[in-house]
Amino acid sequence: QAKLVEGGGGSVQAGGSLRLSCFQTGWSITNYGAAWFRQVPGKEREGVAAIWTASGYTFYDDSVKGRFTISQDNRKTTLYLQMDDLKPEDTAMYYCAADWRDRPTMPLLATEYNTWGQGTQVTVSS
């Protein structure tokens, strides 16, 4: 029933910015937590940023702290990832995820979420 749709990816030069969005539909209540993950072909999916919806508390992987910002709109229907000072190492397919069961206890762990988008590609060139 629930559906997540990502957008906002693209190709940018190192040092540039992108803003990813994830529209959440198919639910009559807000999610308890949401997150962004990324994956490159030869590696496991890794958590980038997460948010506890009720409190607004955020979590970030060390590799993106100070550069990325996760947020949701007031209605909690759209998840965002503001990406600044992008680096070639940020190149990946980015996925949004959300969960309506409870607040994720390990917010950057993929198994905490069972609703996923199809992904949006981010490519950063030097």
Which keywords apply here?
single chain, 126 residues, mainly beta
Descriptive account of the structure:
The chain is mainly beta and 126 residues long. The chain has no helices and eleven strands. It has strands at 3-7, 10-13, 18-25, 33-39, 46-52, 58-60, 68-72, 78-83, 92-99, 115-116, 120-125. A hairpin with a 5-residue loop joins strand 5 (46-52) and strand 6. It is globular, with a radius of gyration of 14 Å.
TL;DR of this structure?
By secondary structure, the protein is mostly beta strands. The strands form 2 sheets. Strands 2, 4, 5, 6, 9, 10 and 11 form a 7-stranded mixed sheet that branches. A 4-stranded antiparallel sheet has the order 1-3-8-7, with no helix packed on it.
Task: List the SSEs and their pairings.
Blueprint: E1 3-7, E2 10-13, E3 18-25, E4 33-39, E5 46-52, E6 58-60, E7 68-72, E8 78-83, E9 92-99, E10 115-116, E11 120-125
Parallel strand pairs: 2-11
Antiparallel strand pairs: 1-3, 3-8, 4-5, 4-9, 5-6, 7-8, 9-10, 9-11
Strand percent estimate: over 45%
Q: In angstroms, what is the radius of gyration? A: 14 Å
**Strand element count:** 11
H/E element sequence: EEEEEEEEEEE
Q: Give the end-to-end Cα distance, rounded to a whole number of Å.
A: 41 Å
- What share of the residues lie within helices? under 10%
